[in-house]
Design brief:
The protein is an alpha/beta fold. It contains 8 helices and 7 strands; from the N terminus they run βαβαβαβαβαβαααβ. β4, α4 and β5 form a beta-alpha-beta unit. The structure holds nicotinamide-adenine-dinucleotide. Pfam families: adh_short_C2 (PF13561). Belongs to the short-chain dehydrogenases/reductases (SDR) family. This is SDR family oxidoreductase.
């Protein structure tokens, strides 16, 4: 028996890195998984997996969210799980960041999860049950120099708490994960990555970088009924880095 048998799950950013691992794990555990992503080419690869449907979504588009939530609910009859995982990062320094940079970052990383909850939670409320997992970052909790990125992830932290209280009485749970540095295409693309990643391993109590699996396993627990009395919770997954 799978831990997500008969569940219908949407994972944004499901065509790469952490999201792709979640898509695999959730489907292995019995869920029908909709990998929702802006990257069509990467979606083609994910569509090859069993019980996985790839759907195009720009998380910063309210129209896209409205259409996707409606289509998934019409087609599969319900939505049980939403993981707001899609995101972008930036290494721009404080003095280089302008209003356009700020707007783009906050619209994808902040408005994206907000709009996802806004359009998916009502379908969950119809069955008085649902689990939403939002992906923030350890940079929302400690200063690591990722300025507007940290702001966007701080927004995720705050709206998750607010949503847990807003949707709790409708049976919808909202929890948040705070990954440390995880080896994915996102971190590999950072220009400073080699130097930064090496220093981070040294500075991490568990002496390694995180893997997509580390985040996917936690998301699986929060998505499943095993966590049915947990909402508004925050879990840092960073090998102990921010505990210091
Ligand atoms: N990798 C890390 O070290 C790390 C650390 C903390 C938090 N996170 C967060 O985890 C999440 C996943 O990161 P990852 O490392 O797997 O990155 P990734 O770049 O490998 O994957 C991100 C996915 O999001 C998709 N995406 C980007 N913009 C989108 C949009 N507007 N609409 C829909 N999809 C969009 C991309 O196409 C991609 O498939 C992100 O929210 C990221 O901020 C990552």
């Amino acid at each position: 028996m799978g831990r997500l048998d008969n569940k219908v799950a949407i994972v944004t950013g499901g065509a790469s890195g952490i999201g792709e691992r979640m898509v695999e794990l959730f489907s292995q555990e019995g869920a029908i998984v909709i990998a929702a992503d802006i990257n069509e080419a990467a979606l083609e690869r994910v569509r090859q997996k069993e019980n996985v449907y790839g759907m195009k979504l720009n998380v910063s588009s309210e129209e896209d969210w409205q259409a996707l939530a409606k289509e998934v609910n019409n087609h599969f009859g319900k939505i049980d799980i939403l993981v707001n995982n899609a995101g972008i990062s930036s290494e721009k320094q404080y003095q280089e960041i302008n209003l356009d940079d700020w707007g783009k970052m906050l619209s994808i990383n902040g408005f994206g999860p907000f709009a996802g909850m806004k359009h998916v939670a009502p379908y969950m409320a119809e069955q008085k049950k649902g689990s939403i997992v939002n992906i923030s970052s350890y940079t929302a909790q400690i200063g690591q120099g990722f300025n507007h990125y940290s702001a966007s992830k701080g927004a995720v932290r705050a709206i998750s708490k607010a949503a847990a209280t807003t949707f709790g009485h409708q049976g919808v749970r909202v929890n948040t994960l705070f990954p440390g540095i995880i080896e994915t295409p996102m971190t590999k693309s950072l220009e400073t990555s080699k130097d930064l990643l090496g220093r981070l391993v040294q500075a991490t109590p568990l002496q390694r970088l995180g893997q997509p699996e580390d985040i996917a396993n936690a998301a699986l627990f929060l998505a499943s009924d095993e966590s049915s009395f947990i909402t508004g919770a925050e879990l840092v997954i960073d090998g102990g880095f921010s505990a210091q």
